[in-house]
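protien #1 (seq + structre)
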Amino acid sequence: MSEIENLSAPRTVAMADDWYDIATEDHFWMQWRHREVMRALQLSQVHIERALEIGCGRAVARGMLERDLGVPVDGCDLNRAGMATAKSGLGRLFFYDIFDQEPSLLGRYDAVFLLDVLEHIEDDKSFL
């Protein structure tokens, strides 16, 4: 398990925790999405040395990204229970609400991944 670093004040959030039980590396959606992300990255020819996944949950996608990119991917989420079961990785895990705009994270990442996140945000324009 990865250590969770607190960057935001504790709070209770309602998440679909049952999704975590089926969203494993061998789930068809996780595999398809990962292939498409990797294809898009290859087409963009972007150089990534460090990345952040917002809404990482159990950090399954983080693990897949780290494996195939060979770089640390930090993860943040507001679901501590989900993150508590994440496997250790190259990157760090943060209990973090990105609306807090933690200054220490500015300029740290070459890429930010929002995988299955935007559809849960009411005002996605402001969020982005």
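ok now protien #2
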Amino acid sequence: MIKKQLLWIGCLESDEEFKIKAEKGYDLASAQVSQQNIVNGIEDITGEYFDSINGSVLPPYPVYAERDIDAVRWSHKKDCFDISVGYRNDKYINRVNCKNAMIKAADEWVKNRYKKGRLIVFVYSMRSAPMAAACRIKKRIPSAELYLIVTDLPQFMDLGESKLKKYLKKIDWIGIKQMQNSFDGFILYAASMAEYLKIPDEKWMLMEGSFDASSVQKPSIFRHGSKGIMYSGKLDSEYGIDMLVNAFMSINMPDIELWITGGGNAEEYIKKCAEKDKRIKFFGFLPKRSDVLDMQRKASLLVNMRLPSEPASEYCFPSKLFEYMSTGIPVLTFRLKGIPEEYYKYLNIIDEETEEAVADAVKAAVDDRKSGKGKAAREFILNNKNNRKQCERICSWVGL
């Protein structure tokens, strides 16, 4: 009898399929990287390998270019089984369709892949589809151990949604809370989640994310000239992008530029402002993560624009900080409840949620690249938050 098996349930894609989906409107690069970091870290530490059951978190057709999503099977390691399920991607019911497909895939996995030993299941994100698949496995295999990785709380995601979607989300939340009771433990990205979800102290650990140190390039050499202030990520007004753009335009410094990559509902506003102020450079969504990372390394300042007033800020850790801090470039951010205190001595802080405060913070930080704070931030992330260190903590807590 095999001693133990590892199963991942989330939204992973093969490297090839991720590129294909990115070209059609899939923009969850951060989730892809985060999952790969944890899977690779646990596999390296334990010598055991995951099978995985996944459901793509896609925008509905026609925002996403395809209506019928085909199942994709691959093996990320020899003899491993990985699947991203197929489903009908219609508006409002695509998540239900994905959930049903993942439950079916869970049944097939139990039938064809389970080897009767200890089964440890990691579920990525508090979404009904992967949670339902895990609960189906628990029903079929009562001894299975389920661990939920909570990156964000569902009701604080998808800001600016319609009234119908808000109603559907409330219904979905009832089911999620019921399924929560089937889980043996929780890996939380923000400590305040525990109180909100009413999780007993002994059933959760804090792990605000991880970073693959092996993929980090050397810091670029500082050169005089135009100073690039860069924001990359979700371009939604609810995340303060308008505030950043307005603040930048108020700064009378001809030798600075604002570099913006990503996609969201603030795109048109950014484009209009770029026509007025030629220092604003809008690059849109870059499907290659390497292009984004190369651009970050050439910047003089990297900006995280999650707002303190945003309800989600208390219950999430902005994973973008790992990517930013690892470059050695100074990082500018608001003080957020979801960011542990140990990070702040490595960050440049925006004191107030106003355009004036953002502008003042940018002016103060734009020449900070030579101060050493960026280098210290890089060393802190690479030495303390790399995926091996974080996954060692997970393995110890779970008993792997």
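DSSP finds 13 helices and 16 strands in the chain.
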